[in-house]
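#onboarding

Welcome to the new folks! Below is a worked example of what a typical request in this channel looks like: someone posts a single protein sequence, and someone else replies with the predicted structure as tokens. Don't worry about understanding the tokens yet, we'll cover that in week two.

Example request:
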Amino acid sequence: MTKTDWPKEPLTPDVMDMLDHVLREACSENGVETASQRGLSAAKALVDWFEFGIRDESEFSRLAREELNSKSE
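Example response:
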């Protein structure tokens, strides 16, 4: 099995706080519990987008809202 490694920026406490804030705000606006399947999916997507290279909080907010609106329980 081939393993691909690339340098990743660490998820620092500041980054985690920002992602948590974005997630809670987007979930609240959409009437979604953060611990629900939709909330957890959005949380994972936020981390994936961070690892992809997104750093702008407003972009995370937009993407989180899109993620929550694209899923239904």
